[in-house]
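Example 9 (inverse folding). The structure is encoded as follows.
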């Protein structure tokens, strides 16, 4: 143990197997990052400028767009820099900062998606009580609770990771700092960290997902009781965007954090991480703009204030 040297920086090996198309990856990720910023920024601006989007659903969508901008910005700028650098490194302090904000934003998004499912459940299953259950104060409290849980979860993981000694390899088979990859590099027993990761993932990942499933089971049951086809279609149309976003986010995020500890191809790991960290935030505003009639009308009013909304 006395001959081991403490690690002061990590080296990302995510794209080391693809040395030739580094510039191509840079252009691709830069385009996706700009698209993410513009798309989610447009939703934020539209929500603030258009009074027609003052209902709780769009309040939550604005927070979701803000989250997508935040957790993409935690990783993508450094990834872009590394794509053009010969040595793709990050200091251990910078890695912990990246880890802290990444875990925070991902945890908040898990909870926020569950809150949005609950909002749709109340709107469809208890429409007469909707304004009572989902008033402005309740919406703010639900969002604040999501952020509080996300920050507390992140503090726990970041502190436990910071206390680990990294005295062996400093190569991360990844594109950014994340808990599972850092645990692999520690030269001590990480069983407490792994158990903590599993328990917290169940609480902040699986539990919100189950809440979403229960909400939509009740929503489907309520919609099927609607007699007219037009009424059923209208009720389902308010949920399809959220369902698509949930499917994209959870399918990749839960694969990344809940797969078995047995070795996996680095290409599969990178693909899953890129999808939930880069692709999903880019697609979310596109999904909400294309699948939501009220959002499309609001965008028309903001972008073309003199044009009739029916055009």
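The amino acid assigned to each position is listed next.
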């Amino acid at each position: 143990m006395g001959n081991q040297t403490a690690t002061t920086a990590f080296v990302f090996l995510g794209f080391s197997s693809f040395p030739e198309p580094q510039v191509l990856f840079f252009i691709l990720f830069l385009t996706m990052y700009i698209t993410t910023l513009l798309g989610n920024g447009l939703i934020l601006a539209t929500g603030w400028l258009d009074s027609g989007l003052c209902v709780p659903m769009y309040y939550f969508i604005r927070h979701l767009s803000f989250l997508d901008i935040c957790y993409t910005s935690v990783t993508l700028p450094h990834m872009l820099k590394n794509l053009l650098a010969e040595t793709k490194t990050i200091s251990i302090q910078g890695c912990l900062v990246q880890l802290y904000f990444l875990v925070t934003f991902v945890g908040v998004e898990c909870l926020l998606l569950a809150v949005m499912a609950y909002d749709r459940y109340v709107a469809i299953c208890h429409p007469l009580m909707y304004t009572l259950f989902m008033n402005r104060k309740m919406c703010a409290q639900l969002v604040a609770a999501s952020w509080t849980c996300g920050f507390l979860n992140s503090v726990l993981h970041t502190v436990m990771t910071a206390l680990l000694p990294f005295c062996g390899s400093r190569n991360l088979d990844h594109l950014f700092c994340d808990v599972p990859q850092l645990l692999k590099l520690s030269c001590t027993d990480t069983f407490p960290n792994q158990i903590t990761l599993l328990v917290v993932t169940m609480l902040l990942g699986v539990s919100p997902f189950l809440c979403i499933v229960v909400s939509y089971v009740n929503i489907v049951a309520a919609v099927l009781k609607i007699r007219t086809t037009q009424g059923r279609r209208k009720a389902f149309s308010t949920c399809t965007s959220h369902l698509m976003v949930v499917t994209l986010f959870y399918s990749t995020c839960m694969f990344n954090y809940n797969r078995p500890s047995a070795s996996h191809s680095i290409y599969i790991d990178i693909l899953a991480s890129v999808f939930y960290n880069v692709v999903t935030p880019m697609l979310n505003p596109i999904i909400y703009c294309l699948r939501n009639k009220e959002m499309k009308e609001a965008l028309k009013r903001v972008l073309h204030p003199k044009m009739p909304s029916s055009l």
